Amino acid sequence: MTLTAAPPKEFKINSGAKAKCAVLQFPGSNCDQDALYVLRDVLGHTAEYVWHNTKDVRKYDLIVIPGGFSYGDYLRTGAVARFAPVMDAVRSHAQRGGLVVGICNGFQILCEAQLLPGALMRNTDLKFVCKYVHLRVENNATPFTEMYKAGQVLKIPLAHGEGRYVCDEETLLELNTKNRVLFRYTDAKGKISPGDNPNGSLDAIAGITNADGNVMGMMPHPERACEKMLGSADGRALFESAIRQGLERRG
Amino acid sequence: MIKLKLELKIENEKTNGGVLKIIMEVEKKRENRMAQVKVRVMLKPSLLDAQGRVVQDALHSLGYGEVGGVRIGKYLELEIEEGLENQDARIREMCDKLLANPVIENYTYELVSTTGGKV
């Protein structure tokens, strides 16, 4: 599937159907509760924790791999979690066309599992960065971004020490030409500058999708930006898009 | 694994001149000799090693201006059973699957017998 930019569409959000969402838990996950809270309490869908040794995730419309420090980040971030039994189930889910969202450590795990290309390395300045950043929506014709406008600038927090996205030139070309970059780090006006790249990511990449467009990963935390009261609600449309698409894929 | 095969032929009156053949097969597992695999994992040269750069800067500020570059990697020691079939292939598999991430890292390894010599 080739992803191309498309104008924003109108959506009926409250169709009444409830999505079943899984929030994976590894030893060391720590954003699992935030993700569950958004899916269940903010958006009103069904969501449950799924332990890392679960072998079947077929009943879920959407799988969220939350942030944290799975297995203490030993060896490399995500390197051990990638071999947990639930990841085989996630791979099968993805092969069936199911939707997978990886946030922060979830993104790192998906890269280690080679469900997404590239890798995440130590931030250029070696500092753990924890702040609000601005992201530009690069492609709004994906199951995860269809409720955003193309080029929309989002305010989303991030918190990580190893978020510098890298990949080889061939992969970068592929990501760019097939519109597989979902978000880039920018300033508040949507302009890319080195000063607004919080971790030194290649091409200011903050989030990408796989070739089939059903698995995505991003370093910033949209689940921490779903209520205005908490500073920003810009992350909400990502989950709304994914849930809507997840329900549609039920078949 | 060492296999021993013993054949005993017993002839006596009771078997009417027949032969009682007892075959004993003894399998003796070779005493496991252990070897050590020394694995070195380095970031690919094309990638920025942020830690290495900071260490290089620190060395410069200590007056070691001759240092032109620092790269930081990982060193792992594995104790393994020696002499298994496909030993090298299995070590490479361990490195490719888990110990190194081929997207960003290269690795080399050295297999050393516990008696000291290279295997």
Using the 3D structure, state the CATH architecture of chain A: 3-Layer(aba) Sandwich
What's the main sheet of chain A like? 9 strands, mixed
- How many DSSP helices of chain B? 2
Backbone structural class of chain A: alpha/beta
- Rg of chain B is 28 Å
Per DSSP E runs of 2 or more residues, the count of β-strands of chain A stands at: 11
Content-based structural category of chain B: alpha+beta
Tell me the count of domains of chain B.
Answer: 2
The CATH homologous superfamily of chain A is termed Class I glutamine amidotransferase (GATase) domain
Structure description:
- The model of chain A has no long low-confidence stretch (mean pLDDT 94).
- Chain A is built from five helices and eleven strands; from the N terminus they run E-H-E-E-H-E-H-E-E-E-E-H-E-E-E-H.
- Chain A has 251 residues and is an alpha/beta fold.
- Chain A is globular and about 45 Å long.
- In chain A, the strands form two sheets. In chain A, strands 2-1-3-4-11-10-9-6-7 form a nine-stranded mixed beta sheet, with helices on both faces. Chain A has a two-stranded antiparallel ribbon with strand order 5-8.
- With 119 residues, chain B is α+β, with helices and mostly antiparallel strands.
- Chain B has a three-stranded antiparallel beta sheet with strand order 4-3-5, covered by helices on one side. Chain B has a two-stranded antiparallel ribbon with strand order 1-2.
- In chain B, strand 1 (2-11) and strand 2 (19-28) form a beta hairpin.
- Chain A binds chain B through residues 75-76, 79, 83, 111-112, 117-119, 121-126, 164, 166-168, 200, and chain B through 43, 47-48, 50-51, 54, 98-99, 101, 103-104.
